[in-house]
Specification:
The complex is a heterodimer of chains A (317) and B (331). Chain A has 317 residues and is mostly helical. Chain A has 14 helices and no strands. In chain B, helix 5 runs antiparallel to helix 6 (131-145), helix 6 (131-145) packs across helix 8 (183-220) and helix 7 crosses helix 8. Chain B is globular. The chains are: A mainly alpha (317), B mainly alpha (331).
């Protein structure tokens, strides 16, 4: 995710001259305009298609192929065939790779939603508060953000999880993992949202809202947030993808969930226990990587597609 | 200028203090008791025996002292460079074990970061607003940047090392060699270095190329570019100015991405059993070597902070505004 997530506020994203022209447009027309450009954006359509396919596999896959992903009851080390249960081949231990893949995709989307969602909520809370309040509140929150930003998330998660695996084994499930990922990956989002809030704060319509005696959090929720909703949504998309990648790395190091299966865990198992490289069981580690790559790649492409939809300057080509 | 760096330095010192404090707190305040965990590893001992063992460990690690005293002792030994001893490395001091691994990690990271940054930015700038190149660079860039580091490493290892046998499979150098200043040793070292380097380079390259491509498009659409065009300036000149402006966020981006890059390096080293920090960390986790684990964590933080500071220095050199205003740009 290098470079894509620079956290740098994108220029020109917040449209128009000050005064809230955007709010003057009736909601219905705005939605129609979004659809009009969305259906003409190849990037957006492609990304949506890929994501829907993956979600389809995650939900329908386990219904068609009802094998337990962790049951070691098939012929081991079989390459992919058309026979049910062997679509993606089997592992060294005789587990169904397709069943693992479909269940692993579910875990991946779960981590993205919960981890990315939590990070977005924290990032918004910190970013809005810091950007809107300013002064010493901003100084403190900014300092906290900068500190968290520099600490490598994965290193921190590794230390925490490796203690947890002995002292509190129940916490080694996918929900806990998602929460930890969410609690540590918000800083760049907070910084980006703070910068955007800063640029909106001094607009006339905010002053007007203040004069009319509205409370601070109401101004944030009803005046500032709607004016950067596209930006917030794109931030969430990037956090979603980032959470998936971090969780996969954590799983690959062997600190992932002890119950259940995930795409990162599949790679860990194939690499550590199954000697997939040595035995040439490529069908064991190729699918999980492609699953992650397709999910995260589609999210990134969707982000750019949305950028072009929301930002008229980038549209043409 | 002095104020700018002073502020930065204070932030980094505070960060290190907080990170070290978290490092100290994790075993003490997390749910569960690591000493119990340690004792449970022994297995098959009587309750009295295990109670004695718990007491022994508590005494050994100083966990029976008041908290403030533990905290002070932690800092005193940290400032003396004493991070405890490693179980995995047969009682070797943690600092020594880390120092033996650092050259490998740096030899991977520094060339991979610098070369991918340079190549990615050049390609991204070339691709922006040039349709045919853009259509090629953009999909490749997105695929690469969405690739998990360890997966690309697995694929490269499988294809180039296990199937085609072009490169060695694992380790820092051949098992039949002793480190020496000979030609054979260096070619062998280089062969082992190639695959981990390549997988790091490729993933990062995608990210930089896309970042640069997007930034250039923003810059080419901005007023100063339009003005230059309207004046009849040649395309090359307009792009040159756009490139110089688009560079700044990419430098900030480098600082922001350091954590992700370091994480990528950790898992890549694990795939190739490359004897750097990542592999050491992996072994520390497997053998539940907590001193080594915590030492590596602190070391990674310190390294990332130093790298961040270097990026700040570069930013001041590249962006004249920070020198004039001395207000610290965007970083």
């Amino acid at each position: 995710m290098t470079g894509v997530v620079t956290g740098e506020p994108k220029k020109g994203l917040i449209k128009g001259p000050p005064g809230g022209e955007a709010t003057a447009v009736p909601a219905g027309r705005k939605r129609g305009e979004f659809l009009y450009f969305a259906l003409r954006s190849r990037k957006f359509l492609l990304a949506t298609g890929v994501l829907l396919t993956l979600i389809g596999i995650a939900f329908i896959g386990p219904m068609v192929d009802t094998n337990d992903p962790l049951a070691q009851n098939l012929l081991p080390m079989r390459p992919p065939t058309t026979e049910t249960g062997y679509w993606f081949g089997t592992t060294y231990f005789g587990e169904d790779v397709f069943a693992q893949f479909a269940h692993g995709l579910r875990a991946t989307f779960f981590v993205g939603l919960l981890g990315g969602g939590l990070a977005a909520v924290i990032g918004m809370a910190v970013g809005f508060t810091a950007g809107y309040r300013g002064g010493w509140v901003d100084e403190m929150l900014n300092m906290a953000t900068n500190v968290m930003l520099v600490i490598p998330t994965l290193a921190l998660l590794i230390v925490i999880s490796s203690y947890l695996q002995r002292s509190w084994p129940e916490a080694r499930g996918i929900p806990f993992e998602s929460v930890f990922v969410g609690l540590t990956s918000w800083p760049w989002a907070a910084r980006a949202i703070r910068a955007q809030t800063f640029s909106l704060r001094s607009r006339d319509f905010i002053d007007l809202a203040k004069l009319s005696g509205r409370r601070g959090w109401k101004i944030i929720a009803f005046e500032i947030a709607p004016n950067m909703s596209s930006y917030l949504f794109m931030t969430f998309i990037l956090l979603f993808g980032g959470a998936i990648l971090i969780a996969a790395s954590l799983d690959f190091i062997g600190l992932g969930p002890t119950q259940g299966i995930s795409l990162g865990l599949m790679m860990f198992n194939s690499f550590s226990y199954g000697a997939a490289l040595l035995l040439g069981l490529w069908w064991w580690f190729i699918p999980p990587g492609i699953g992650i790559m397709a999910t995260v790649g589609a999210l990134y492409v969707m982000n750019v597609g949305l950028d072009e939809i929301f930002n008229p300057k980038l549209r043409e080509i | 200028m002095r104020r700018y760096f002073g502020r930065k330095l204070i932030t980094y010192l505070i960060t290190f203090f907080i990170a070290a404090t978290i490092d100290w707190m994790i075993p003490r305040f997390m749910p569960g008791d690591p000493v119990q965990g340690l004792v449970s590893r022994t297995g098959g001992i009587s309750p009295e025996g295990s109670a004695a063992l718990v007491q022994y460990y508590n005494n050994l690690f100083g966990l029976d002292r008041p908290l403030y005293e533990q905290f002070l002792n932690f800092w005193i030994s940290l400032l003396h460079g004493d991070l405890g001893r490693s179980v995995f490395e047969h009682g070797q001091p943690v600092t020594q074990a880390i120092m033996a691994a650092v050259p490998y990690t740096l030899a991977l990271l520094i060339p991979a970061i610098l070369l991918s940054w340079w190549a990615g930015n050049s390609f991204g700038a070339l691709a922006a607003r040039r349709k045919w190149l853009d259509n090629a660079v953009l999909p490749v860039g997105y695929i690469l940047t969405a690739t998990p580091y360890m997966w690309l490493a697995l694929v490269l290892s499988f294809v180039l090392a296990f199937s085609l046998r072009i490169f060695p499979q694992s380790g820092g150098y051949g098992y039949n060699l002793e480190p020496s200043l000979t030609w054979t040793f260096f070619t062998d070292l280089f062969g082992h270095w190639m695959l981990p380097f390549l997988s790091l380079f490729m993933v990062m390259f995608g990210g930089w190329a896309i970042g640069m491509r997007n930034m250039i498009i923003y810059e080419l659409e901005s007023d100063y570019s339009r003005y230059l065009e309207a004046l009849g300036a040649p395309q090359g000149l307009v792009r040159k100015y756009a490139f110089r402006n688009a560079m700044l966020p990419q430098i900030t981006g480098l600082a922001l991405q350091l954590g992700v890059i370091v994480s990528g390096n950790l898992v890549t080293e694990i795939v190739f059993s490359y004897p750097g920090i990542g592999n050491l960390l992996f072994n520390a986790i497997k053998s539940e070597d907590y001193f080594l684990l915590q030492g590596i964590f602190l070391f990674i933080i310190a390294g990332v902070l130093i790298a961040n500071f270097l990026v700040d220095v570069v930013y001041v050199i590249v962006d004249p505004r920070t020198r004039v205003g001395m207000r610290g740009g965007t970083a």
